[in-house]
Amino acid sequence: MTTPALSLRPYGSDDEVAAVDLWQRTWQLAYPVLDFSTRVDWWRERWRDELVGHAAITIAERSGAMVGFVTVDPRTGYLDQIVVAPEEWGTEVGRRLVAEARRLSPAGLDLHVNTDNARAIRFYEKHGFIVSGQDVNPRSGAPVHRMSWRPTG
Q1: pTM for this entry
Q2: Could you tell me the strand order of the sheet in which 6-10 lies?
Q3: Are the beta carbons of 96 and 88 closer than 8 angstroms?
Q4: Which residue in 89, 143, 149 sits closest to 119, CA to CA?
Q5: In which domain, by residue range, is 101 found?
Q6: 3-class DSSP state for residue 25?
Q7: 14-27 per-position pLDDT tens digit
Q8: CA angle 11, 12, 17 (to 5 degrees)
């Protein structure tokens, strides 16, 4: 059986509900002890106020359904979010979204990832990111790695 083609496109305002739902679903799997349903209003506000309008947002779709997205501020090279639907983990979606982030910020990318999120750290390392520093999440107080990618050559 052939997997339907993956397509990438710019974010549109009609995508908000699906993007917020996908964020909640993936983070709930990453941190099952936390109740992300109680954080949806906060996330929706952050999505609207901090990401939409300030970052380039690219949506990944398969058969018309959102299966991922990436947000990058092309002015700073900050990759705030890369979210891939759990049923797409290990497929081309993550790789394609990282490639899109690099296209949007060809001089380099920086991000923060929770130090206890081993799956995400492995993903970023696989795609050429290195741990370039330590920090603390200002909202949660959780320790985070700063990870960076710079083009070679």
Answers
A1: 0.90
A2: 6-10, 56-62, 65-73, 78-84, 109-114, 143-149, 130-136
A3: no
A4: 89
A5: 6-149
A6: helix
A7: 999 999 889 888 87
A8: 95
